[in-house]
Write a structure and sequence with these properties.
23% of the residues lie in helices and 27% in strands. It is α/β, with parallel strands linked by helices. Residues 132-153 are annotated as: Disordered.
Length: 316
């Protein structure tokens, strides 16, 4: 994948934008975890791959390209990360970069520039997306061999399973016949629950680890937002733990919180009490259980806290 070709096509495609823009490739960006002030766009295209171990080649019409963009002081930056795939035949095959043709780079970047107009300039010209040229992919898409399909790490899945199990235990004594489920949702907005939904915001503590430099740090100011709704005997809770990023790395990505089992248990017990109050109008007068704090030796860094940036970090 020739980066100069991408840059050249992007400069031509973006020349009618108000500001000067440049394009760069960044393999460290993570889908749905853009830094504060950056906008996200995900586009799809087709590409060919070549296994560096056995030489096998294959084509795919499901190649995701993650784009993060920011406009500030008359300068625009777009960071790109095309997702990779690996060979389904080789054992422990490495992830391979896609080879995208010029005729597909062009519509991809045209679609990206339209997203820049919408997200960075609030201009929606109503243009339809440019289609990419698909390949004759003779075998079905293999999610297990696609980086985009496996972007949620095993650690994330294990943590979410733990939250779900504890939540089911905590809600089993709610009104008989009602069912409740918990789901993670990174797009819920504090203080903006959808009509019919209730909100609960609670502070806890967690550890974080920078994916760029490996530095870890604890925090006793980690906000978790819950949105909840009960309709016709079925309850749903959406949860969003807020993230932090490394104060030492430049352009460090926001990292997910690692919360201990003990504090997950406390959080969800307090949540269930709020469900009783907000959804069943039962106030048993129980006090909120405090979380188990960590030994934090440096002051909280609002500039590196997603909740501070959202203006909710002081709530408990």
């Amino acid at each position: 994948m020739a980066e100069p070709e991408w840059t050249s096509i992007f400069q031509i495609t973006a020349r009618d934008l108000k500001d000067s823009w440049h394009l760069e490739f960044d393999e460290s960006i993570v889908p749905n975890r853009q830094q504060p002030g950056w906008k996200k766009s995900i586009v799809y295209t087709s590409a060919r791959f070549n296994c560096s171990e056995c030489g096998r080649r294959w084509s795919s019409n499901k190649v995701m390209v993650v784009c993060n963009m920011r406009r500030a002081y008359g300068q625009g930056v777009v960071k790109l990360r095309p997702s990779r795939q690996n060979c389904k035949i080789c054992s422990d095959a490495p992830m391979e970069k896609p080879s995208i043709t010029s005729e597909n780079i062009k519509p991809l970047l045209q679609n990206l520039v339209e997203k820049i107009r919408i997200k960075c300039y609030n201009e929606d010209l109503g243009r339809k997306k440019k289609p990419f040229r698909s390949f004759d992919a003779k075998s079905p898409h293999e999610p297990a061999h696609c980086e985009a399909s496996t972007s949620n790490t095993d650690t994330d899945r294990m943590a979410q399973t733990e939250w779900t199990c504890i939540f089911q235990m905590k809600t089993k004594d709610l009104k008989q016949g009602n069912t409740w489920r918990l789901e993670f949702d990174e797009i819920i907005v504090p203080d903006c629950p959808n009509p019919g939904w209730e909100q609960y915001i609670r502070n806890t503590c967690a550890r974080f680890k920078c994916t760029k430099c490996g530095r870890g740090w604890p925090s006793n100011r980690v906000m978790v937002v819950f949105h909840m709704r009960l309709t016709f005997g079925h309850g749903v809770v959406k949860v969003r733990p807020f993230r932090q990023n490394c104060k030492q790395c430049s352009d460090a990505p926001m990292e997910k919180a690692s919360i201990t089992s003990e504090n997950i248990d406390i959080l969800l017990e307090n949540l269930v009490e709020k469900i009783k109050i907000k959804c069943y109008h039962e106030d048993l007068g129980k006090k909120q259980r405090p979380f188990i704090s960590l030994d934090v030796r440096s002051p909280h860094e609002p500039a590196h806290c997603e909740a501070c940036i959202a203006g909710i970090c002081t709530r408990s």
